[in-house]
UniProtKB/TrEMBL annotation:
Listed name of the protein: SDR family oxidoreductase
Listed Pfam families: adh_short_C2
Family: Belongs to the short-chain dehydrogenases/reductases (SDR) family.
SUPFAM superfamilies in alphabetical order: NAD(P)-binding Rossmann-fold domains
UniProt feature coiled coil, ranges: none
PANTHER family named among the record's database cross-references: OXIDOREDUCTASE, SHORT-CHAIN DEHYDROGENASE/REDUCTASE FAMILY (AFU_ORTHOLOGUE AFUA_5G02870), SHORT-CHAIN DEHYDROGENASE_REDUCTASE FAMILY PROTEIN
Single biological process term from Gene Ontology: bile acid metabolic process
Keywords assigned by UniProt, alphabetized: Oxidoreductase
InterPro entries: NAD(P)-bd_dom_sf, SDR_fam
A molecular function (GO) term: oxidoreductase activity
Organism of origin: Paenibacillus lautus (Bacillus lautus)
Record-linked CDD domains: SDR_c
């Protein structure tokens, strides 16, 4: 038994970012052809494209603003023109960055940015790509959420608001399109070790790790592994799930 994504096309938004690039490599290693979405990191996106092509997989780099419906639709059209079909797998990974602070100090536009990049990205991607999946009678939507959605710690409010809104969209979407053989799930990373940490020597945090049952931070590869599982046929009867990948730091209640 193995994760086999041969003959599948996967689109990862924010693919040039710290987590996105590992998702790209992992899905390609599982056999998928990859659409590498970026907003401003063209050089990194093109480097990823070369990596994927060196594996013998097809790759296509495309720029889009995922908070703008016309831009998402233009990305859809570009992918269709390039591959002759639309993706089987959508991974909504992109999110706007901002400076975290208290509710009383957080700028209103930060809440807007999180709503647009979490909630509306999910809506625009569904509108653009779900119809082809419905026609095909199969597909995978995978949203990247966060453990913060359960933590609700001070200074997290804008991020939590956006990701909790995203959670609502994904749960409803799972019920609306499940009858067509399409699964809709979320991966919720904890505070994850990425290339930036490895380069800066910041892989460890004693205070954070003390609260995690597994007593360590997770890695970008472990997040990508969960995404690959949900993208594969091994997860064919899982939908509507919010899956923390955080060493048990948060646990979903029943």
């Amino acid at each position: 038994m193995k994760l086999n994504l041969t003959d599948q096309i996967a689109l990862i938004t924010g693919a040039a970012g710290q987590l996105g690039r590992v998702m790209v490599r992992t899905l390609a290693e599982c056999g998928a052809d990859v659409v590498i979405h970026y907003r401003g990191s063209l050089a990194k996106a093109e480097e990823l494209q070369r990596e994927v092509e060196s594996m013998g997989r097809r790759a296509f780099t495309v720029q889009a603003d995922v908070t703008d419906q016309a831009s998402v639709n233009a990305m859809r059209d570009a992918v269709l023109e390039h591959f002759g079909m639309l993706p089987h797998i959508i991974v909504a990974n992109a999110v706007e960055s901002y400076q975290w602070t208290s509710v009383l100090e957080q700028a209103p536009e930060d809440y807007e940015s999180q709503f647009q990049s979490c909630v509306m990205q999910s809506v625009y991607l569904a509108k653009a790509f779900a119809p082809a999946m419905i026609e095909r009678k199969s597909g995978r939507f995978i949203g990247i959420n966060t453990e913060c959605s359960i933590q609700n710690f001070p200074s997290q409010s804008a991020y939590v608001a956006g990701k909790r809104g995203m959670d609502g969209v994904y749960r409803v979407l799972a019920k609306e399109i499940g009858e067509h053989g399409i699964t809709v799930n979320q991966v919720a990373p904890g505070w994850t070790i990425s290339d930036r940490d490895r380069e800066n020597g910041t892989e460890h945090s004693a205070s954070y790790e003390a609260s995690v049952p597994l007593k360590r931070r997770g890695t970008d590869q472990e997040i990508a592994n969960a995404v690959a599982f949900l993208a594969s046929d091994l997860s064919s009867y899982i939908t509507g799930a919010y899956i923390p990948v955080c060493g048990g730091n948060v646990m979903v209640g029943i």
